[in-house]
Amino acid sequence: MSKPAITLWSDAHFFSPYVLSAWVALQEKGLSFHIKTIDLDSGEHLQPTWQGYGSDTPCAVITN
């Protein structure tokens, strides 16, 4: 059985401490993943050509 691909999203400057924490955890566990960035400063996330994460993109949901 193949494992789903893991994509780690970050802003273009890798500013988020949450991304850093996720990156460290993935490295420590030895999981393969790839990083995608989006330039928030230039408004890339506001452009109509940006597809977003998409409803078919698996993501972690944290609930209390």
UniProtKB/TrEMBL annotation:
<protein>
    <submittedName>
        <fullName>Putative glutathione S-transferase</fullName>
    </submittedName>
</protein>
<dbReference type="GO" id="GO:0016740">
    <property type="term" value="F:transferase activity"/>
</dbReference>
<dbReference type="InterPro" id="IPR036249">
    <property type="entry name" value="Thioredoxin-like_sf"/>
</dbReference>
<keyword id="KW-0808">Transferase</keyword>
